[in-house]
């Protein structure tokens, strides 16, 4: 089997997963820490989705790190299919969350200043940007693995 | 070649494309007709994306209808790949537009009543719902065609 860069068990995949975990954790922290995020539906949704993406990314970081540094894990089509489907579903969910957060923040910025005390809206924007980056990396992983699937 | 229902040139695909065109046109009309939609960024984005989805869907409705009723068109992997990529890109864009519109409408409903004179917010909600349905059908088409691709 040829080693397609970016597919499961390669160092490029480890980098993609690592970035995904970092960005989704950053998005979660920007949104959660010391903010009453539950007053807007879109922000609750972002927190829920990122709470799903973080453990998913962490699990796959561990699997990739084991495969790169210790011993190459065997690739089974069934497991690869589950990972592709999970990646695609999570990428759609995180895109939806990022867009909702971005448009809500945009509306809050346009309206009265009182909705954005201090630097609050900047934090919302950063959180949405991190969610977009996480979506992009997750889509990349899904496409690389999808490319590998027919050869198994 | 076996006839996979839902792939390019079958009657199921014609139905999917037809629904996609109907829903995206409905979303566009609900948003555009007699409303000043350009005061919110999310609504402008929805109109832009739906303005891309409608001609794409119409073109493929015509191709499918020709293939079903007149003469079966030959399937080329290159053209199928372009259609799959276009479908995936448009489905991501329309999901993003639908989510932005839905969250903006939700925020407008939660805030002051003066932002939603008459039944305006109901129309925004209907437009977002139509965009979600259009996204779902477009994703379905993309997945069916993606399933067919390795067999060509």
Automatic annotation (TrEMBL), chains A, B:
Protein's cellular compartments: Cell membrane
Transmembrane intervals: 21-39, 45-67, 79-104, 124-149
Domain of life from the UniProt record: Eukaryota
GO cellular component, one term: plasma membrane
Coiled coil: none
Main location per the UniProt record: membrane
Membrane topology: Multi-pass membrane protein
Chain ranges of the Casparian strip membrane protein domain: 8-137
The entry's keywords: Cell membrane, Membrane, Transmembrane, Transmembrane helix
InterPro entries: CASP_dom, CASPL-5
Pfam family, one: CASP_dom
Family: Belongs to the Casparian strip membrane proteins (CASP) family.
Assembly mode: Homodimer and heterodimers.
Protein's recorded name: CASP-like protein
Species of origin: Prunus armeniaca
